[in-house]
Amino acid sequence: MLRPEPCLRAAEVSFGYASLRVVHEASLQVGPGETVVLLGPNGAGKSTLVKGIIGQLPLLSGTLDLNGSDISRTPAQIRVRQGLGYVPQIRDVFPTLSVWENLTMGGYLLARSGIKERAEQVIGDFPALDRLRRRRAGTLSGGERKMLAIARALMAKPSVLILDEPTSNLAPLIAAKVLEEIVASLAGAGQAVLMIEQRVELALQVATYGYVLVQGQMRLDGHAAQLQETEDLSSLFFSGGAAPLHGGPEAATRGLA
Fold first, then answer.
1. SS3 of 102, please?
2. pLDDT band at 146 (very low <50, low <70, confident <90, very high)
3. Quick check: is 245 in a domain?
4. Distance between the two ends of the chain, CA-based, in angstroms?
């Protein structure tokens, strides 16, 4: 299966903190209509990689490309203007503001005259939020709050939306609903989505492509269906990348398809 032309491409990028290099020459890409999942054990460097992509950490080596432009040295706020959206794992909404106010805050990059129209467009894509538009975000359920966080990020019309563990702290049924209904619908509408997710089996059911990061290095990548067939995927997580793989050559691809 051919992948679409990427909106976001990270080529052999390295990131870290001060003198500590955490991510080592990792490569990934995501294109329109794809849901790409970044998997790996705790401490693998997934959040560090995402922080580097969005500009919160300096690039130590490699290149970053967004919509055909090199953003390797571009400040974080400019990356947002160029089409990079981000939903953090925590502090993803303003709890004291209403649903509607959260959405309009998400439109801060838009012309003031177009914010209300855009908010109506976005809320139209998330009908469950319509009846909640006057509710304070802090009173929402976990699933409703994550829906609002994603909707708020979409206000700026990002070409790439990055989700940092969208099911974190959610009950299993709610987590499944967030991934199967909300995240899957984004790709169906042509949105490029890159997400970190710990619920491996559920994530691969929704994703189109996946990467496995272990000890700061990309150890495996492939179409989601291929990764689902990789027999020792969980062993790879907890062996520090030393476990052999028995899922066949297609599942154990290392290059970008």
1. helix
2. very high
3. no
4. 8
Mean pLDDT, rounded, of the chain: 89
| Domain count within the chain | 1
CB-based burial, 12-45: b 16+ in 10 Å, e otherwise: ebbbbeeeebbbbebbbbbbbbbbbbbbbbeebb
Comparing 24-28, 134-138, 249-253, the range with the smallest average pLDDT is: 249-253
Q: Give the span between the Cα atoms of 117 and 122, in whole angstroms.
A: 9
Residue 246 lies in a domain: no
What is the spatial distance between Cα 145 and Cα 149, in angstroms, rounded to a whole number? 6
With b for 16 or more beta-carbon neighbours within 10 A and e for fewer, the 119-149 pattern comes to beebbeebeebeebbeebbeebeebbbbbbb
CA torsion angle 241 244 246 251 (round to 10):
40
Query: Amino acid identity of 169?
Result: N
Per the structure, the complete domain to which residue 145 belongs is given by 8-238
Structure confidence at residue 188 (pLDDT): 85
CATH number at residue 118: 3.40.50.300
Q: Nearest-CA neighbor of 147 among 172, 122, 117? A: 122
Q: Does residue 151 sit within a domain?
A: yes
> To 5 degrees, how large is the angle CA 50–CA 106–CA 113?
140
Contact 209, 36 (CB under 8 A): yes
- Is 115 a member of any domain? yes
